[in-house]
Amino acid sequence: MTRMTWITLTVMALLAVLPPVFFWTGNAFYLDLATRLTILAIAAVSLNLILGYGGLVSFGHAACLGLGAYAVGIPAHHWLYGGMDALATTNGFVQIGLAVAITALFALVTGAVCLRTRGVYFIMITMAFAQMVYYLIVSIEEYGGDDGLVIDTRSELPGFNLDDPLQLFALAYVSLVVVMLVVRTIVNSRFGMVLQGAKGNEERMVTLGFNVYLYRLVAYVISGAICGYAGALLGNFTTFISPEMMDWARSGELMFMVILGGAATTLGPVLGSAAFIVLEEFLGRLTIYWHLPFGLMLIGVVLFVRGGLMGLLRGGKE
Amino acid sequence: MDLSLFVIQFLNGLQLGLLLFLVASGLTLVFGILDFVNLAHGALYMLGAFVCAWLTQVLGNFLLAVLLALPVTAVAGLLVERFIARPLYARDHLDHVLATFGLILVIDTLVHLVFGPEGIAVPLPDFLNGQIRLTETLVIPSFRLMIIGAGLAAAAGLYWMVTHTRLGMLIRAGASNRTMVSALGVDIERLFALVFALGAALAGLAGMLIAPITEASIGMGNNIIITAFVVIIVGGIGSMKGAFIAALMIGLIDTLGRSYLDDLFKLVMSQDAAETSAPAISAMLIYIIMAVVLALRPQGLFPPKAR
Question: Are the beta carbons of A292 and B99 separated by less than 8 Å?
Fold first, then answer.
């Protein structure tokens, strides 16, 4: 096994073991932190598929996260308070299925438009579409509008009790591992090779006869659907779902997690989200002005650290 | 339909459109010439609003405050250019986006540190605070007319500068072939810095003009920047003319859509359906228009000729 494989396995083992240990030793707070981190890591891994491997700088990924969360929140809201009987449920399969289906559809429709454009247009359009969903949700008063939606119930899944923080973490962790393996498999498949080839030289792939647009659209949909799944978990974790989840700053943060950890690597997005969440927590306790050092750090990383944390771990090789 | 209400909404739309143009023109100028994506452009808009609001309180004179705040935002633009943009010109757009995203956090927090967490209201001088009565029912606040006037003046000034001055000629030349301009002996670094400062001052001016209406508040730039993106995407990135036409279009459509879409929907659907769907659709209207424009013309309506 290579050095990177060892590092990946070690990090993932630590992420599996440490949070429960914190929980059993009376530091339940750190388990919550780890659950949030793990869920955001799933979103970051999904973004890495298109951003890292596909070279598609999507600035609207938080929309999928938010839509996924609302796919849990809206059925639960109707189940609790009535109205729209057809939609009212706390069945986890239905909610999560809805989250994945809606985000896949959203990614399909917006992706079909966005992927016609290149470069900076693509960045701005993905951002604008995410903002469109944001304003749509804000305008629907039934679901809390600006104030968000409080649901006092979590998804019901056979064999799982998501009200137990340890089981929720376990679900998130297993999901993360599965998603990492799925993305890795996709990336190493023929499909993934075309996707990466198009990132390096689009013209060459087109000349070779590949319909690059279609490959990218499929990757975009897969990425959106995985992120929708992460959103469903996030909704279960917070039980408070607000438009704030899809604010464009959240999309920027997800991008940063990917770049900070190391784009186009298996472990990078996970490391990135871990570093991001831990720093945010640590700095947030020191001062209410924590955004200042945080922002400076972001700028510093872009200016001086190429390849992210994975680049540092590799020791400058490659 | 009430005609005077329509005129007022039309003027509101025009005002929003011109403010959007001030923000979008700087954005499109910086992108068109420097090939740099500046997410923090909205933060400069906010900075302009705060500096102007503070100066108005200290000096007691809004117009003087605007005159002094303009160079302040231009200098802020110069600093951003020197320390963040310049090292990143050679990198890809992703790095621009990430670094300026960090910069937003920095500027927002600095403003919070210096001016406090509360918004600052901007009192207007008497001659701007009045109203102009056009007809029996049609009353327009004179400050809104001033915003429209200032926006049009800025647009005209920019047009004159780009088409009739040496600086404008260099800007146009730099936009189509920067290597050639540099080879002809023009100090391209200074030109870039100047363009960046100009863009910052334009965004700052927009912030100063809106501050007396909405007051200066933290995060105010984060909303307008996305709409400004929509404007330059629809207009064609890098095109001044496109930014102007698209800004007016988006401003009018957004404002009129919010007021009249439910009436329009009532013609084709039931009262209830119209009243529930209209707010949702009008909130998404400009994005839907953007999607339609892109589906038909991916480069925007007025793409710049040579790049």
Answer: no
Per the domain annotation, does B31 fall within a domain? yes
What is the band of A316 on the pLDDT scale with cuts at 50, 70, 90? low
B307: pLDDT strictly greater than 80: no
Minimum Cα–Cα distance from A127: chain B residue: B226
pLDDT (tens digit per residue) in B250-265? 999 999 988 888 888 8
Secondary structure E strands in chain B: 131-133, 139-141
Here the tokens at position B30 are 């910086």
3-state SS assignment for residue B244: helix
pLDDT tens track for B262-285: 888 888 888 777 777 788 888 888
* Residue A259: C-alpha distances to residues A61, A262, B103 (Å): 14, 5, 16
Please check whether residue B224 lies inside any domain of the structure.
no
Beta carbons of A125 and B233 less than 8 Å apart: yes
Q: Please give the residue range of the domain that contains residue B118.
A: 3-219
* 3-class DSSP assignment, residue A295: helix
**Whether the predicted pLDDT of B183 surpasses 70:** yes
Inter-chain touch B294–A297, beta carbons under 8 Å: no
Out of A119, A123, A140, closest to residue B280 by CB: A140
Instruction: Give the pairing type, strands A149-150 and A240-241.
Output: antiparallel
| Average pLDDT taken over every residue of chain B | 88
B249 within some domain? no
Give dist(CA B147, CA B141) in Å, integer: 10
- Residue B127 resides in a domain: yes
Characterize A18-57 residue by residue with b for buried, 16 or more Cβ atoms within 10 angstroms of its Cβ, and e for exposed.
Answer: ebbebbeeeeeeebbbbbbbbbbbbbbbbbbbbbbbbbbb
Sequence ranges of the domains in chain A: 33-247
Residues A214 and A194: beta-carbon distance below 8 Å: no
Count up the domains in chain B and report the number. Answer: 1
Give this complex's ipTM: 0.87
